[in-house]
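Journal club side-thread
Mid-discussion, someone asked how the predicted structure for our own chain would compare to the paper's figures. Pasting it here so we can look after the session.
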Amino acid sequence: MKRILNLEGAINLRELGGYPTADGTTIKYNKLLRSGDISNLTADSLSYLKKYGLRYVVDFRSTDEQQNWADTTSDFYKIYSDPVYPLKGNGEKLAGIINHDNFSYLGMIYQTVVLDTKGQLAYKFLFNLLLENSKADQALLFHCAAGKDRTGIGALLVLKALGVDDETITKDYLLTNLMYENNETIEQTLNDKNGNQDINRMNMTKGDLESITSVFEAIDHYYGSFENYLDSALGIDKSKLLQLKEIYTE
């Protein structure tokens, strides 16, 4: 089964099935997709996604991004607006306390997002939809613009909740860098001179190991464990976590 789905009109579209978990199971195929921009999906790409079973699309982009580069619509899936930005601001303060001005550019942003009350609400919404996606042969796709930062955090949270180890999660995150090599489409689609310059800079910055591991560190520091974070920040208690594993692993 292909991990990278080179569908025309999509940026950085990837399958999340097949990863092993600590429980001895694997994540089901045809249930979870992560992606960047999908505003230019072609008829052939839509046909593929219909056969794949896509029913839910979660859009992490800002309202402006959603208006300027609207997702391709279709009758077989529903699009859910779930902006991660703008943040409330409390997450940046918390991230700054534990970093003491010694952090990578992306790492600081990622820590800010997972600690911020607005960022947490966005991912809580994602997890609630993941619980709804319980029928067989139906899939959910979550995405932002590059499919690296907001989506990368989403994938980290979902994979870790399902029991995938940190090393595998990090490797999945770093796969995005392969998509950036000699790709004019990414440059043209994401580095928009009229767009938000902070988001532009993030989109065009390659991922690195420190950035993703810093998220684990921030969650452990403030919540004690990832399970505590799931429960108190995202509303996923032990019962819901079991439901998620029943839906997405086998």
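Post-session note: The chain has one domain: 14-248.
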